[in-house]
Write a structure and sequence with these properties.
The structure is a single chain. By secondary structure, the chain is of the alpha/beta class. Helices cover 26% and strands 13% of the residues. The chain is built from 16 helices and 17 strands. α6 packs parallel to α8. The longest helix is centred in the C-terminal third of the chain and has 17 residues.
Length: 554
Amino acid sequence: MRNPTPTNDVTKDAVNSAWWRSAVIYQVYIRSFADGDGDGTGDIAGLRSRLRYLADLGVDAIWINPWYPSPLADGGYDVSDYRGIHPTYGTLDEARKLITEAHDLGLRVILDIVPNHTSDQHAWFQEALAAPPSSPERDRFIFRDGKGENGSLPPNDWHAAFGGPTWTRTPDGQWYLHLFAPEQPDLNWDNPEVRAEFESILHFWFDLGVDGFRIDVAHGMVKDPALPDLRLTEFSVITGEDQQNHPYWDRDGVHDIFRSWRAIADSHPEPRVFVAEAHVRPGRMPDYLRADELHTAFNFDFLRCALEADKLKEVIDRTITDLAKVGAPATWVLSNHDETRHVTRYGRAHTGVTTPMRHHGHPTDLTLGTRRARAAALLMLALPGGAYIYQGEELGLYEVEDLPESALQDPTWERSGHTVRGRDGCRVPLPWAGDTPPFGFSTYGSATPWLPQPDDWKSYTAEANQADRTSMLQLYRSALRLRRTNPNLRGEEFRWLDSPPGTLFFERGNGLLCAVNLSDRPIPLPDAWSPLLASAPLSKDGTLPPDTTVLLLD
């Protein structure tokens, strides 16, 4: 029996003309994607050399993590110049060529913008340090006098996302706010000069042909001007999702900023697109995706969800129902540059994300994790809306949890007093070809990759995947081909079907069934349905094995 699921009231014409509503976007962590000049670090030249690979994969767009000039205190999320390219990655002229070449292959280009904070090496912050208290230069950021005798205590009790306090004292005795690392001073978004500067930055890149931006920390740009004390749990330090009226997360003032940005995006002949990285309280995401604000947002609830049928169904229902209120499409994501790769997560006893800054050392069954990752990928790509693929997941890569301590570069490692290893394990350079490191990431004989690759990644290279008809890469290519060619997967129609416990059955369009078995036993498939694509071989008796997803036609 079919169970109706609420759908939004967007017309079919609108769905078809708005590419971003169903786009599959490939995340490029440029430092680790491909090294074109042999210095051990990924760059624009390496990315340009692999654009055909991405087009053949079948994605619609690429999202490039920050490539701006930066001291790299936080992997580029500490920007010193928003209109340039880090010299390790290339030049602005190379960026222009990349955008043109991507467009020629049918790939749109989305950049990262980091508006909550700059680098401490940004010209504005250097000017602020040289200026006196209460100066216009300091008003671009959040400087305050301290508490206690001679102002020797921080202005409040806030704790930074990477560990330690959110305040650092300057030589003249004032303190400046940084929600992340001291090298990332927070901007003051109540200052009109800050707003005007970022509007100019958007115009700069849009005029170069960039198709959109992913907005880093979209939920954190506006602070309570009173800067009140706040007792925080570890989780709320990162997200604020467990507290009403949080003084710096998910405040209503961000929406006025995004309305002005949407007007800029819509002013271009082909409207540009925004994607929010926003950790918000339940029911608040639609506020960010109203028709005059942002287009889409990352679905962290789906990423964090345990791979259990009832929990996934709840997240899918809530996502589609909530976003339908404002006519926004859902998005789905399994991994990114901040989270443990899902092959590793799914091989554990608990398959969800329990803490924003991961803890290592949990036993992992990579065979089981890979099987479950294949099932989850086919589920994700069968759902209505858009999807994100983090580089390397199409190769089946796992989290590298045994990096030498001397190699760790995530600021979390230092800020936590060497107790949290951080995110480097999901950022290891990609393996492209060959049997030994650097596996085609750089040319043999060039500099060592900036993070070491495991020796057994020789089985995970793009070359090895290409040669295996049953590989993860072939599964992703087949699923993405179906998204493009099967009319049932083009729209946003979606209906749950009754199914056994521990499973998910839903129909797309008029006659395409997705069946997901997350139970511990095989289940029968409905009669008169013909398999199109499965994440693992079906049983000889026609049943669906555990940890397997199949797409079927009526």
